[in-house]
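User: quick one, fold this
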Amino acid sequence: VTYEGTNQVKESKISMLVHEYELFLMHDNESISDMFTHFTTIVNSLKNLGKSYSNQELVRKILRCLPRTFVATWDDSDPSSSEEESDEEVANIAFMEIEEENK
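Assistant:
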């Protein structure tokens, strides 16, 4: 059964979630784990509504949201490595921090 306005509601939810995704930031008092949970909730909600992002886009978004201490670690990485390898390295650092917080 399809109700009139269902598409409008869906588009409105997508628009709201895309806005939330675009403005997403890690707060000063927020743990990496909490930030990642919040980010994943937004991304999964968008995916359920038919809007998805590539893994590369998601990693880049996370990297832009990390505190400067993580970015400094990323900048200290091997300058000869490719951008994709650097992204993967920082993602691994973030995931290691999440695992450490969950212990």
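User: anything notable?
Assistant: Residues 6-101 form one domain.
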